Known about the structure:
Helices cover about 30% and strands about 25% of the residues. The protein is an alpha/beta fold. It has an eight-stranded mixed β-sheet, sandwiched between helices. Residues about 295-300 have low confidence and may be disordered.
Amino acid sequence: MPYELLQYKKHAQKHIHLGVCGSIAAYKSLELMRAFLKCNIHVSVTLTPSAEKFIQALSFEALGASKVYKQIFQGEQAFDHLEPGGLADAMVIAPASATTIARLAHGLGDEMLACQALAFDGPVLIAPAMNPKMWTNPATNANVETLLERGYFLTEPETGLVACKEEGQGRLARLEKIYYDSLALITEQDLLGKKILITLGPTAEKWDAVRVWTNNSSGAMGTAIAITAWLRGAEVYAVAGPNQQYLPEDMRIHVFPVTGADEMYETCHDLWHTMDYGIFTAAVADFKPDAGINQEENTGFFQSKKFKKEYHSDGFDIHFSPNQDILKSIGQIKKPHQKLMGFSAEAGSQLHELAQSVRQKLSAKNCDIVVGNFISEAMGKKSNKVYVADKNNIEEEWGTMSKADLAWDLLSYLESV
């Protein structure tokens, strides 16, 4: 997969039953299963007879599936067709073929996977993969609509080149999309109905046509919070600075790409009045270069031109002006029903200095919670160690944990404060 998927302790010991249908994309279900297993989710598997033409049950068993069900009348136990219904928390069929979708829509139980799905009363996700003409066929459309009306969940196929060399919608969705859609099925929707604004990544302030004043923030912490909030049912609005590489596409998260601090300020203020929570993780540049030498002249802005070093062999000066304080400005207009979380990153290593910075920001920015961390503990790492303080004068040092689990706990904290 193209980037590290978030894994949560909260999902440990959950059970997903994975159905695999006949498709060249069937091999991708192995990687999907491995992603579930990394969360300590128990995974059982059923392959349709057609799927077994592409991939063998032994592959799933070797990677940790337990158990892998055989087909009807092929040595199965008496109630294998009912067993996932009593054990699994969710069922994911990926890839889902047109044939299996039709079976489920019409209630046919002539194969093991179809029987198991028909006897399953938990959430079922289908991730189709098929020829584009098959996907757009009215019969397939009607069958999918029938399943959606009955409460099934759908991860739509992508558009692109498929195995038969045709172009169109029918490719199996990216595995990270199926993965997160699957996790949502086994995640309590305790943030359903909440609208959350999250800023993430750096800002980049132009000082000529190609150069910027920026920082090394990757947006990983903000992305973890955005995805976690979405998994828990919130409607998420992510204002994302440039170069952040973690926020997946097609997550049904509203993403607003911005570059500079002024653009982030305007976007946040446009959105804030409809929000319930604001979580400001972005590493916003406190200053921006605003004027300097324009090659031939000593006055004026030069952001629209490329700076030429040959004109300034003795060096040059750039004047910096302060950016607007986004978090403080939002805190000043925060209404009683709205909650605000800020972040404070410090370069030192003394806990009392970090605690002092957190307290100062909590008061100055009118936040409900401020989360502090040392840059050395967080930047470029998968884990974080933080110091938190809230408006009720409660302060705590939290031990090192993954950014996914930290995101989960911070959202729960914001809910309770």
